[in-house]
Amino acid sequence: MSENRPAVVLLSGGLDSATVLAIARDRGFRPYALSFDYGQRHRFELQAARNVAAAGGVEQHVVIPLDLRVFGGSALTDDIDVPKDRGEAEMEEGIPVTYVPARNTIFLAVALGWAETLGATDLFIGVNAVDYSGYPDCRPEFIKAFSELANLATQVGVEATGQFEIHSPLIAMTKAEIISTGKSLGVDYGLTHSCYDPDLQGRSCGRCDSCRLRLKGFVEAGTEDPASYQ
């Protein structure tokens, strides 16, 4: 039973992670939210994460500074243009420049360390492999492999006093299904931020891959996107 068990939830401030937080609470977990200030292009998603955490009734919200700009290699952490106006077929061709090298591996590793200190064996992450944006660390194979690693690399796993589980409840959902699920759980998507390249006021561009997938999801879910667009 998950009733009142602690769980670490990776919270970016985006649509998917806000939904995952609501799912974790609905399943009876006590969520501890973890966000990263990793040198991303703007601060708006971090503020969104704070707002979502406050509204989501988390036990604690930790924001860890981990500046991945020292490596670069991504349009989100380097001086590389964010792709705009791409169709779905184009999005699915190879790994896009918005991929941050090993980001989910790094984030889950830190989340795993915090989970051990909390006595938690459940981690939640909002990866999705249906409305797929080409990221290798959003696939079921990755989640399965990291789950195996978690149970090999921890005291809990070695001493067999528990079993780590990486929950990825959105992985087989379309964006529309994610939005519908979140709405049914009371998620306020007006608090979330998804855009890779907003303006100085925080308004979403409506043209990057993330915006286009989000807008398509709201249309297919038959509801209005409350985000502010340029």
Description:
The chain is α/β, with parallel strands linked by helices and 230 residues long. The chain has one domain: HUPs (Rossmann fold, 3-Layer(aba) Sandwich), CATH 3.40.50.620. Helices cover 37% and strands 11% of the residues. The protein has eight helices and five strands; from the N terminus they run E-H-E-H-E-H-H-E-H-H-E-H-H. The protein has a five-stranded parallel β-sheet with strand order 3-2-1-4-5, sandwiched between helices. Helix 2 links the parallel strand 2 and strand 3. The longest helix is centred in the middle third of the chain and has 16 residues. The protein starts with 5 loop residues before the first strand and ends in a 9-residue tail after the last helix.
What key attributes describe this structure?
alpha/beta, 5-stranded parallel beta sheet, Rossmann fold, 230 residues, 8 helices
Secondary structure topology:
Layout: E1 6-10, H1 15-26, E2 30-37, H2 44-55, E3 60-65, H3 88-91, H4 103-118, E4 122-124, H5 140-152, H6 155-159, E5 165-167, H7 175-184, H8 209-221
Parallel strand pairs: 1-2, 1-4, 2-3, 4-5
Helix pairs in contact: 1-7, 7-8
In short:
The protein is of the alpha/beta class.
Rg from alpha-carbon coordinates: 17 Å
Distance between the termini: 45 Å
- The CATH class, by name, is Alpha Beta
Question: Which CATH architecture is right?
Answer: 3-Layer(aba) Sandwich
| Major beta sheet, strand line-up | 3-2-1-4-5
Global shape = globular
* Count of alpha/pi helices: 8
Structural class: alpha/beta
CATH topology: Rossmann fold
**Uncertain parts:** none
Count of extended strands: 5
Q: Quick check: average pLDDT?
A: 94
**β-strand amount:** 5-15%
Number of domains: 1
CATH H-level superfamily title: HUPs
Give the SSE string. Answer: EHEHEHHEHHEHH
Q: What's the story with the biggest beta sheet? A: 5 strands, parallel
The amount of helix comes to 25-40%
